[in-house]
Amino acid sequence: MRSYIENVDFFKGNDPEALVAKYGSPLYVYNEDILRSCMRTVRGLITKYDYTCNFSIKANSNLTILKIALEEGLNCDAMSEGEIRLLQKAGFTSDRIFFVPNNVSDSELKYAIDNGILVSLDSIDQIESYGKIAPGTDIAVRINPGVGAGHHQKVVTAGKNTKFAITVDKIDEMIAMCEKYDLHIIEVNQHVGSLFMDPEPFLKAVETLFDVAKRFKDLKYIDLGGGIGAPYHKVSEDEKPFDFDSFKERLEKELDSFVESYGHAPLFKMEPGRFVVCESGILLGKVYAVKTSYDRKYAGTDLGQNILVRPTLYGSWHDVEILRNGKVVADGEREKITIVGNICESGDKIAEDRELPVIKKDDIIAVLDAGAYGYSMASNYNQRPRPAEVMITSDGEVRLIRKRDTFEDLFRGFDI
Ligand SMILES: *Cc1c(COP(=O)(O)O)cnc(C)c1O
Asked: Residue 149: pLDDT band by 50, 70, 90 thresholds?
């Protein structure tokens, strides 16, 4: 079996064991070259028309990564006031931030409005709240095209079974509410779901969005959403990466036919999150115990669900590689094993019943494709500090980009 880590020289000569010894285990490690290359890919998705790519920062909101996004010419999507404030810290100006919240308070809306940030509204009630604060201004609206896509029901964000967006049958009501407050819809957007490797449902949804868009005569922007998948099975099943060339070609045809019937081209946007950061991140953790319990073998690690919750939350698959003495263990005897964490939950499993090289105590587990929805969803459950994050820079240096939590951090809010 080939090793991804060795193939791409992920650590650039740095010994992962030494990294863990220095920065603590577990540890999120990012590779700057891979990160920048993914950013360039999404940045170049539409070339024929005016286009901006908005990185959806909920996937990874490390400040250093945001600054790299700024350098690479990406704009960003924020889902909350906290994300807006973080983007401002990273140096994004208001015109490069897009606020796409759902179910937020007036004060959160007001923060975006006062900062001159375009807001996308996803219900008629929220349009009304917005209209009361800032009548006579420009807004975006999020439409549910009635088609969803995604790797798990929990991340399908359009279609008939989701809380998100305004459904097509409510558009007249939506327009009436906008008229009441003299709000001008300058953008329609959608987000059909997360992690599609097959572009078909996405392209279908784009068609539906374009049909809706034709009802608005002077749109400045049309935002096609995010959701582009990453190959989480590339080592175990030789899964191929998302086919950008064919996607770009097919998308361009859709854009052409829309522009022709609309009469002019608005600026198109996409808002990928996962794809931008997924492959550039690897999570390292240590094996502290190996045991057999009835007929199952377990490797007990510090990779709890508080560190990477995707397997527990969605049943997600992450390829793993085993490191010993600084090298990937690729050959030798293999066996079926379940890799678990140190959290008091029976669902605390990183990988279940995997055929892997025999794992030993003190090995390091490398969880691949952990850059998206990894650290950003981490918590202090069981009073465990969240790990540090480091970046292997383009010149092979190791840079600490977020400190590990201290116990003081955990106790900071208490009345003591
Ligand atoms: C989460 C989200 C995205 C990004 O989704 P990915 O699957 O990470 O690409 C884009 N747009 C909106 C509105 C989102 O909520």
From this structure: low
**How many whole angstroms separate alpha carbon 269 and alpha carbon 201?**
18
Residue 60 corresponds to which amino acid? N
| Ligand 1 site-directed mutation target among 188, 202, 271, 310, most atoms within 8 Å of CB | 271
DSSP state of 95: G
Once rounded to an integer, what is the mean pLDDT over residues 383-392? 98
pLDDT on residue 6: 96
Please work out whether the CB of residue 59 comes within 6 Å of at least one atom of ligand 1: yes
Q: Which atom of ligand 1 is nearest to the CA of 373?
A: 8
Contact 242, 231 (CB under 8 A): yes
Q: What's phi and psi for 79, nearest 5 deg?
A: -105, -5
- Distances in Å between the Cα of 333 and the Cα atoms of 15, 358, 378 are 24, 6, 34
Gap between the Cα atoms of 118 and 103, Å rounded: 16
Residue (of 248, 241, 127, 145) closest to 193 by Cα position: 145
Residues 6 or more apart whose Cβ sits within 8 Å of residue 265? 49, 50, 255, 259
Contact 142, 174 (CB under 8 A): no
One DSSP character per residue, 287-356 reads EEEEEEETTEEEEEES--TTT--HHHHH-----EEEEETTEEE-SS-EEEEEEE-SSS-TT-EEEEEEEE
Please, are residues 29 and 409 in contact by the beta-carbon 8 Å criterion? no
Distances (CA, A) of 43 to 39, 54, 74, 252, 281: 6, 9, 7, 15, 19
Rounded CA-CA distance 297/300 in Å is 10
Average pLDDT over residues 11-27: 97
The predicted model gives 230-248 an average pLDDT of 95
* Residue 249: partners with Cβ closer than 8 Å, 6 or more residues away: none
Looking at the predicted structure, is the pLDDT value of residue 157 above 80? Answer: no
Neighbours of 207 (CB within 10 A): 13
Active site residue 344: yes
Quick check: CB of 229 below 6 Å from ligand 1? no
